[in-house]
Amino acid sequence: MLTFYNEQHSQHQGRDAVVRGQPVPCAEAPARVDAVLAELGRRGLGRIVTPHGVPLMSLERIHTPRYLHFLRNAWSDWVALDPANAGQDAVPSVWPVRTLRSDVEPDNFRAKLGLYSMDSGTPLTAGTWSAAKTGADCAVNAAHALRLGERGAFVLSRPPGHHAGADFYGGYCFLNNAALAAQHMLDDGARKVAILDLDYHHGNGTQSIFYQRDDVLVISLHADPRFAYPYYLGHADERGAGAGLGYNLNLPLPAGTTATAWMAALETACIRLGSFGADALVVSLGVDTFAGDPSSRFALHSADYLRVGERLAWLGLPTAFIFEGGHAVKELGVNVINVLEGFETAL
Ligand SMILES: [Zn+2]
C-alpha cells in the first residue's frame, strides 16, 4: 500500500481550544500523525510517498472559489488587522445563524471568519493553509494512484477533512480530503465512487457536499448527533435529496456501542456498498471509536481494527484510506495501522 504523507502537517498547530470557559491545549496536534508515521515505519507497510502539488482548480471541484480565496489569505488578513495578531490564532466569535444572510461576504475579517466556519474550536494559524493544501494534494494523489491500478492507498495527513463543507471549516477540518479524492476519481473516468466514514463523529461536510448526487454514495457510522459533535446533522432520516435521494446512509449509534454492535452496523454499510456497484471506495478513517479515546463513548479495542480492515478488503474495491480523527495518541498508530494491515493481509 502506498502512503501519501503530508510533510507540512506540523505547520498547522492550534494553540488552545476553549473548554468550559478555560483554554486547554488543542487536541488535534502534530503528535497524532507522528504516532501513526512511527507505527507505519515499525510495521513496514509499503512505500511512503511525497505528493505532487495539485492546481487550485482541483480543489474548486469541491470547494467554492470564494471560500478557497478566504482560506488562502486568512492568515495575512488576520495579521494585517494588527501585527500583534501574529502571536495568536484566529478564532471566530460571530455566525450568520437562521434569518441572517450568508450570501454577502462582509469586509470585516471577524465576520468573514464566522461566515466560513461552524464552531470556535478550530483555530486558524499561520500554517493552516499550507498544511491543509498539502493534505488535499495527498488525497488527490492517492485517488490518482488508485486510478493507475493501486489496490490501496493511505493519506497520512492533518488537519482532517470530513467536517469541512464546500464553503466552511469546523471540527478541526478545512479542506474535505475524502470528497476531493472521490471527485478526482470521477473526473478521471470512474462512474461511481462510495465514501464510507468510520470516524466516531458524523462527517457532516462530506454528507452536505454530495447530498443531492447519485454518483457518490455516502455512508457514515457515528455517534448519535443528539449527544455528539456535530450535533446538527447525522440523523438516520437524512437519506439524500433530489437525484441524491437514497444515496446517503447514516447509521447513528448510541453511547456505549460495543465492537459487536459497531461491526453489525459496518455489515449493514458493506451490504449497501455492495449493491451500489462503486468503482472505488474512499474510507474516512477516524479511530476515535476506540474505547480509550477521550472523545469516544464507544468501546472498540485495538484488535477490532484488524477486523475492520479485513472486512473492507472483502468489498474488492480499490480503496483510499484518509486519516481523520482519533486522539488517544498512545494507541493511535496501532489502531490506524491495524486497519491497513487487516486490509492488506486479507487479500
Ligand atoms: Zn472524530
TrEMBL record:
GO MF terms here are: histone deacetylase activity; hydrolase activity; metal ion binding
Source organism: Rugamonas apoptosis
Q: Of which family is this protein a member?
A: Belongs to the histone deacetylase family.
User: Which co-factor is required?
Assistant: Zn(2+)
Which Gene3D superfamilies does the UniProt entry name for this protein? Histone deacetylase domain (3.40.800.20)
Instruction: Give the signal sequence positions.
Output: none
| Keyword terms, alphabetized | Hydrolase, Metal-binding, Zinc
Any one Gene Ontology biological process term?
Answer: epigenetic regulation of gene expression
| InterPro entries noted in UniProt | HDACs, His_deacetylse_dom, His_deacetylse_dom_sf, Ureohydrolase_dom_sf
Q: Name one Pfam family in it.
A: Hist_deacetyl
Q: Which domain of life is it from?
A: Bacteria
Q: Could you confirm whether the keyword Hydrolase appears in this record?
A: yes
Annotated Histone deacetylase domain ranges read 28-340
Q: Does the keyword Transport apply?
A: no
- Output the CDD domains linked to this UniProt entry: HDAC_classII_APAH
Q: What is this protein called?
A: Histone deacetylase family protein
